[in-house]
Amino acid sequence: MYDSILLPYDGSEGAAAVLHHAGELAHWADAPIQILYVADTTRDSVTVVEGDTVDALELKGRDVVEEAAKTLETLGVAYDTDVIQGNPAPTIVDYAEQYDHDLVVMPTHGREGVSRYLLGSVSEKVVRLSSVPVITVRMQPDETFAFPYENVLVPTDGSDAATVAAEHGLSLAASLDATVHVLSVIDDADLGLDVRSTGSGTESEQAATDAVDTVVAAAETHGVTDTVRHVEHGRPVEAILDCIDANDIHAVVMGTKGRRGTDRILLGSVAEKTVRSAPVPVVTVADRE
After folding, report:
1. Structural fold of domain 151-285
2. Element holding 224 (H helix, E strand)
3. At 37, is the secondary structure helix, strand, or coil?
4. C-alpha dihedral, 53 to 45 to 82 to 21, nearest 10°
5. Are 183 and 239 in contact (CB under 8 A)?
6. Nearest to 118 by CA among 6, 32, 58, 40
7. Can you give the pTM of this predicted structure?
């Protein structure tokens, strides 16, 4: 499923926890991890050490990746390390594409101070910009994540972008022998009051049902044997979070954009809000058009 995993890493508490989750993914996929520290050149980090001008963040980065490497060694995961300079989000995206990584693993927040490049806003930029699938993990105190994922949620609005993301999610679920929950959300706020009694409401219900049925049919061709259909009314992000909570979802796979109109579940803003707020890993997949 994945041949090479890129882990942008800053050594913060949240990032350290994600390192272990990335290690589990790597073990399962039999894939090496590339640990990457980006010394943020948009910050004033140049200093002088023993008479030599050096980049303090780059020196810090070498220590950070060395500690991460020790952890991966104890986990028995193959790895390599790199420290480079640049503007973090575009540098991470370019690095993943240049070296043919097929998954980027990131926490959605990092430590305040010199290593802030993994704050949520940067992770969200990577989600927006990356042509490579990105799995984001929101690390909060006392949160742990299940792996292998037994229940995978695939939100869909029937768009081309949703189809691309669903294909990735179905392949992942098939590899894990996981149950796939397929969700389409009808945003009543876009349709107005009494939506269920209007023609537009009926059309939206049918479109949502068709979108779910399309993914369920595709699941059979991927060898996914257990699927659950969900068609809900409400705000997309809230519906996604409710579905996660009610169905013991272990991971979400969704596109970074979708159809503009009444069922906008996969628009970038929804994906980014889900990345920010979901208590489980979120895999975002770009439509490479």
Report:
1. Rossmann fold (3.40.50)
2. none
3. strand
4. 150
5. yes
6. 40
7. 0.87
Distance CA 9, CA 115 (A): 9
Rounded to whole angstroms, the maximal C-alpha distance in the chain is 76
pLDDT per residue as tens, the chain (289 positions): 999 999 999 887 777 778 999 999 999 999 999 999 998 877 665 666 665 546 777 888 999 999 999 999 999 999 999 999 888 999 999 999 999 999 999 988 634 433 444 445 778 889 888 999 999 987 766 667 889 999 999 999 998 889 999 999 999 999 999 999 999 999 877 645 454 455 556 888 999 999 999 999 999 999 999 999 999 999 999 999 999 999 999 999 999 875 443 334 444 578 888 988 899 999 999 976 5
Output the CA angle 163-95-170, nearest 5 degrees.
Answer: 25
Class of domain 5-137: alpha beta
Name residue 248's amino acid.
D
Q: d(Cα 220, Cα 138) in Å, to the nearest integer?
A: 31
> How far is residue 201's CA from residue 150's CA, in Å, rounded to a whole number?
33
Backbone dihedral angles phi then psi of residue 159, each to the nearest 5 degrees: -80, 170
Residue 52, classified by CB atoms within 10 Å of its CB into exposed (0-12), middle (13-18) or buried (19+), is exposed
CATH 3.40.50.620 domain position(s) in the chain: 5-137, 151-285
